[in-house]
From TrEMBL:
Protein family according to the UniProt entry: Belongs to the peptidase M48 family.
Organism: Photobacterium halotolerans
Start and end residues of each Peptidase M48 domain: 172-333
Name the UniProt record assigns to this protein: Uncharacterized protein
Keywords, ordered alphabetically: Hydrolase, Membrane, Metal-binding, Metalloprotease, Protease, Transmembrane, Transmembrane helix, Zinc
Domain named DUF7092: residues: 5-78
Gene3D superfamilies reported for this sequence: Metalloproteases ('zincins'), catalytic domain
GO cellular component: membrane
Keyword Hydrolase recorded: yes
GO-annotated molecular function: metal ion binding; metalloendopeptidase activity
Pfam families according to UniProt: DUF7092, Peptidase_M48
Biological process, per Gene Ontology: proteolysis involved in protein catabolic process
InterPro entries per the UniProt record, alphabetical: DUF7092, Mito/Outer_Membr_Metalloprot, Peptidase_M48
Length: 333
């Protein structure tokens, strides 16, 4: 049996006409111009056809042969390779097997996204040395101070009063992974407060001005402490890193398109995770408000004030970084 096709010289993509003589049992002869190569079947590197890719024969010195008519070489390969490769090749051409495999990959991917990445992030966060979240928190605060935030305009006495009252609240808190530290800043884009990975809680002047009672301000501060308690900041960082790596591996390169897909995937996924984090922080704050004030009404009042200030978001819920404020108020009730 002589199979006509083409060959590639060693370490070259040059394509030359060739023929493979398979008439002798256990031995083949490759003829490519003036080159004649004889080898036993045991010495060959036989690559069975993979899906739509043709079969190929590799020789010990680097020459490679592919048939002009793939079925001829594929038939010879089937008779000169071990049996398991035959059913693998059949699966590669079976549409039902392909569809089932794709469905399985999708289910596994969604399961990893929904359960695997959060679980891995939760575990990895608690394995990190304490120096990592401390460094990250300090670096983030420096960056915010440089580009976004301004020094607080609150009087020093008012800051001391808030810090002293918050220090008393800490006596009733469960053990925290980091020592809490409150800092005050000014920001022109609305009332807010946020926690950093090292236990720092940044309180904006506008939030202090929005609160009409100490309990209302404390409820938001306790909410931020809930983020510290559950280490949501570091979990979000680890989650984003894992999703970025997964997206880069799927795309397979570092082009601009890959960066865009990676950034989009991180944004969408992180927005979903942060909704769960906000609910956990709400629950933590509500428990502490009941313990210290016997009610969650001050917290609900602040949420109502936030809703009046920011208005109803026009974004769909799945793209919002926080749950709907109305849902959070109902949960408090």
């Amino acid at each position: 049996m002589i199979i006509k096709g083409f060959c590639h010289p060693p370490l070259s993509s040059e394509r030359r006409e060739a023929e493979l003589d398979c008439s002798q049992t256990g031995q083949v002869t490759l003829r490519c111009g003036e080159h004649v190569i004889m080898a036993s079947v045991a010495e060959l590197q036989i690559s069975p056809p993979l899906g739509a890719l043709p079969a190929s024969i590799g020789f010990a010195d680097g020459w490679q042969f592919k048939a002009g008519l793939d079925y001829e070489l594929a038939e010879w390969v089937r008779h000169n390779t071990i049996q398991p490769q035959r059913w693998v090749h059949r699966l590669e051409r079976n549409w039902l097997a392909i569809v089932a495999s794709v469905a399985l990959v999708v289910v596994l991917g969604l399961s990893v996204y929904r359960y695997g990445i959060p679980a891995a992030s939760h575990a990895l966060t608690r394995l990190l040395p304490q120096a990592v979240p401390v460094y990250l928190g300090e670096h983030v605060l420096e960056t915010l101070d440089e580009h976004m935030l301004s020094p607080s305009q609150l009087e020093a006495q008012e800051q001391w009063q808030i810090q002293d009252r918050f220090a008393l609240l800490q006596d009733n808190l469960p053990p925290l992974p980091f020592e809490l530290n409150i800092v005050f800043r000014s920001w022109p884009h609305g009332p807010n407060a946020f926690a950093l990975s090292d236990g720092t809680v940044v309180v904006l002047d506008s939030l202090v001005e929005m609160a009409t009672t100490p309990a209302e301000l404390d409820s938001i501060l306790l909410h931020e402490v809930g983020h510290v308690y559950h280490q949501h900041v570091m979990e979000s960082v680890v989650q984003s890193a894992l999703i970025s790596v997964a997206a880069a591996l799927i795309v397979g390169d570092s082009s601009g398109m890959a960066d865009m897909l990676t950034s989009t995937g991180v944004f969408v996924a992180s927005s979903g995770y942060s909704r769960d984090a906000e609910r956990e922080a709400d629950q933590f704050a509500a428990e502490q408000m009941l313990k210290n004030y016997g009610t969650t009404e001050p917290m609900a009042a602040m949420f109502n004030r936030f809703m009046e200030h920011y208005g109803d978001s026009e974004l769909p819920e799945w793209l919002q970084s926080h749950p709907e404020l109305e849902q959070r108020i109902q949960a408090l009730k």
